[in-house]
Amino acid sequence: MKKSAVVLAGLCLLMVADAASARGRKRGASACAPVAYCAPSYNAGYGYNYVTTYQDVTRTICEYVPVTTTQAVTETVVTPVRKTVPVTETYYENVVETVPVQHTVYRCVAETRQQQVAVARPVTRNVEQTYQVCVPVTRTVKQSYQVAVPVTRTVKQTYQVCVPVTRTVKQTYQVAVPVTRAVEQTYTSTVYEQVPVQKTCYSTCYVPSAPVYGAVCGCQPMCGGYATCYTPVTTAHTYTAYQCVPRVVTQKQVVNVVEYQNQTRTQDVNVVEHQYQTRTQDVNVVEYQNQTRTQDVNVVENTFRTEKRSVPVTTYETVMENRNVTYNVMKPVVETYNVQRCRTVARNRTVNVEQVEYRTSTRTNKVPVTTYQMRTRTITEKVPVTVCVPVVAAPAPAPCVPAPCWY
């Protein structure tokens, strides 16, 4: 609201000054200055506003950086050793032989012959037909029937049972036994310590000066009034910050190295053998015996009744015609074909079989190990700085009068 009031007052002053200069040019009687004289009038005091600006500030940060080093590690390697052993084996091979065989085959041959054929031709006429209608009559009759009644009896039955028999057998096997030994290793690590550092930062505040009549402040002069200028004042502030400083430390540690040694051990293994035993059990056998029973059955008897109706009757007249008739005649044909017969032949051959033995050896490998070290880095970032700026209250509007003339 204060800024809008100041703008409106300035516009009013400009309009009054233009009107006064126009009147002076029309009259042409005096050398008056073509400006309006506005008497300043202040009804309010000074105020303060907070203004935020951004300044570039340099600071040091700490970050972890991966560092890869190579360390020697001792490993135990089990290497398979293969050797070839000749073994004689017997295998069976199928030999295919071709044998000629004669076979009599009956083939169907079509033959055409001239023959008289009786052809039936239909002839339809209406005939009065008498027919019997069957009327059902139901009555109850005693009926005897046979029933198979089951009778159960117990019979001794003998059967074979396969009984497993377990016996203990000594068995030898190889075991790789781990042997652990302690090895001392030296490694280097980086330790970061917090060190206090004194730093200085600066803040700027604008201080108003005493109002000056008709002075130029900033960019434009006031219209015959008072102007207030602001002078920037920079203040230095000292504060304590902590910085990470790296330090290298050498330490020793004991590492357990595992080696494997082959040992021969013996264990008891249970072997299962099967023996057949004869046992007897009781089995229920079901036999059926026939019994005669009587029941009431509804018997339907049919009574015939004679009725008449006119029915179209189609009869067939037989006419002899000569036609070509095709007959299928089976004729024997002797064919000779080859039959392949398979015969099994036993043969021997020598085969090389690979046997694998395992040998233990120790080797040293270099393994990359990644550790993280703290490093410092300087960065620049913008930091908001808030300063206190005084603001002059807008003067109350005053009546404008013509300016005095000077000769």
Summarize the structure in short.
With 407 residues, this protein is mainly β. It has one helix spanning 2-27; strands at 36-38, 46-208, 212-213, 216-217, 220-221, 226-227, 230-392, 400-402. The longest helix is centred in the N-terminal third of the chain and has 26 residues, at 2-27.
Could you characterize the architecture of this molecule?
- The protein is mainly beta.
- The chain has one domain (2-402).
- Helices cover 6% and strands 84% of the residues.
- The chain contains one helix and eight strands.
- A two-stranded antiparallel ribbon has the order 1-8. The protein has a two-stranded antiparallel ribbon with strand order 2-7.
Show unreliable segments. Answer: 16-44, 215-223, 398-407
Determine the number of helices (DSSP H or I, runs of at least 4 residues).
Answer: 1
Q: Overall mean pLDDT score?
A: 77
Rounded Rg: 65 Å
What percentage of the residues does DSSP assign to strands (E)? over 45%
What structural class do helix, strand and pairing data support?
mainly beta
Number of strands: 8
Distance between the termini: 42 Å
Strand order of the largest sheet: 1-8
Judging from the principal axes of the Cα atoms, what is the shape? elongated
Q: How does the SSE layout of this entry go?
A:
Elements: H1 2-27, E1 36-38, E2 46-208, E3 212-213, E4 216-217, E5 220-221, E6 226-227, E7 230-392, E8 400-402
Antiparallel strand pairs: 1-8, 2-7, 3-6, 4-5
